[in-house]
């Protein structure tokens, strides 16, 4: 969703300008436990701007826009904590009125649309008859002889002069009728809810407004389902906006509030909490935007409803977590009604419950998850895909690309190298890796992200995403190819013409296999503290020092390194980026066994190693800039969800094999992990797509990917051990029903992912400064 152009930007500007001048959250203070009526002057102003009728068709006097534009408004309303029930009284009724108009209910719909457009009378949808309902069946409210009897619960916007759009039963069919709230036989029990008001409405032979239903039968059922779906998408946008507004206020507060002679926001604990809230909000935005895209494509399709449930759960969680943490980070002031933070929490509590709780929507998503996964896996098996005559994958449709790649992988990937239950994180090494990469290159499937002119595929990000999915589906072993994923993009940007001409083809053919030489003993994630020296001697550098944690260095022929070539005031200066042949005299490698029993990490020693000066990448002393660009590409690569996906597949099989498929507690935990992975994949795709579309280098925001997916992987592997009981303590193979696996190895292999490529704590520090602009600790 692009909010920065055209109508969307105009609406956003309009919303910010109007609310800045007409609404302050402080106006909502003092209403705790009291029924707060609609603020009619504010509501009237919204109507004059066309907001209340933004989704109404032009034939009904509306703007003729859609849910996308309504969500632009709603997100801003959430950020600025508007209490007026826009989603309930504008978004959802608009869906019903458009459906009724299409069915021919012209007179009543025209009148209702006029009231909505002018804000003369609020419209309120009354459909719920009990707590916890998501998709209710036939209502108990009945229409007999043109009169309505029954009750509805948790109705938003039920003012004394409201018009209620009520779902009811008419001669065994579902109907939607209009009833005036001030009509005889209507009784409203209003109560405070969040920062607004709800009510239970009772009908005792209440007359209908237009004598006949607005919608009846299947049309009524479809329209009501679509109204609830639209309402949940918009509510997700509002909750995400609330979370963002709450975090922004919190960052402002901790940046200004001084304790112990330093801003609160300079304390690492505070910074890391704010970063975690930023990550939650990023996931929420990805989720509701995907739900919106799905709604616009097919509002009531199974995958759309699953996406909407995932988004409602995610956005509610983000708003709740942010509200709670904001109170904590405000200290005693957070507990005072004199600031707005408590209002954000109160509103989040309401929004999380309305239109379905977090738990209910996670369960709904989990019920649909197997079908979603199956659809994804089967999407490449379609037989109706039209093949183009072009041999260039850039000319193929995404469906054709997926089908061609899937068929090729099924035919060519070695069966004995497939990932399996015993080794879900299986990595290809040595000859297995090189032979596979060469085979990809032989058939034109190598380096999907590299430009075509440099030997890559040059495909769009959507195809790169499909590429990852299909590799995962085929069980391709995990590939660590630093040459392709890290050094190649770095040389394309920073290397000389001679370096690109020489090294890029050798990377693609695996004639040179690269490892990374960044970390050093005692330096850890603090790369700027490196001590490996490179002294210029004529046309060569003489390198002395050591590197550590160089993955698979024993399998590699070359290493790209950061070395110190000068001393300056800032330790980030005087660092250069060198390419070194591991066969050069003076290089030695020592493997390091890890806690999973693998010799994958290595220590590399340089004893007066002579390196040609032409192997300098970028300018002398400017290696820090080169390194930052490379780390951005690395964190995009490390952000892949493949390992987490494999671990979750194992989790689902474990639950089945251990007879836990009816254990509600286990299933709820599994549902949370499934939703977490689903939402993360959306965030990954959207962030990478933005980077590709804008043509920018991956920046600090890429650290979000590495932080979240690495910790998600750990949570999944921990879940797998916990549900396995005593089997989880076995080191080595276990047999669980039909499942033969090793539970210990994946958990141990998941531990370092939060450490390498910059420990997650360091990544949070980066995000706190570069993205959230939190203050630095004072010197001295």
UniProtKB/TrEMBL annotation:
UniProt cofactor(s): FAD
Domain Acyl-CoA dehydrogenase/oxidase C-terminal: 218-367, 622-772
Pfam families associated with the record: Acyl-CoA_dh_1 (PF00441), Acyl-CoA_dh_M (PF02770), Acyl-CoA_dh_N (PF02771)
InterPro entries noted in UniProt: Acyl-CoA_Oxase/DH_mid-dom, Acyl-CoA_Oxase/DH_mid-dom_sf, AcylCo_DH-like_C, AcylCo_DH/oxidase_C, AcylCoA_DH/ox_N, AcylCoA_DH/ox_N_sf, AcylCoA_DH/oxidase_NM_dom_sf, Mycobact_Acyl-CoA_DH
A cellular component term, taken from the record's GO annotations: plasma membrane
GO molecular function, one term: oxidoreductase activity, acting on the CH-CH group of donors
Source species, domain of life: Bacteria
Database matches in SUPFAM superfamilies: Acyl-CoA dehydrogenase C-terminal domain-like, Acyl-CoA dehydrogenase NM domain-like
Keyword set, alphabetical order: FAD, Flavoprotein, Oxidoreductase
Domain Acyl-CoA oxidase/dehydrogenase middle: 515-609
Domain spans labelled Acyl-CoA dehydrogenase/oxidase N-terminal: 9-79, 399-510
Entry's family note: Belongs to the acyl-CoA dehydrogenase family.
Protein name: Acyl-CoA dehydrogenase
Source species taxonomy: Bacteria, Pseudomonadati, Pseudomonadota, Gammaproteobacteria, Pseudomonadales
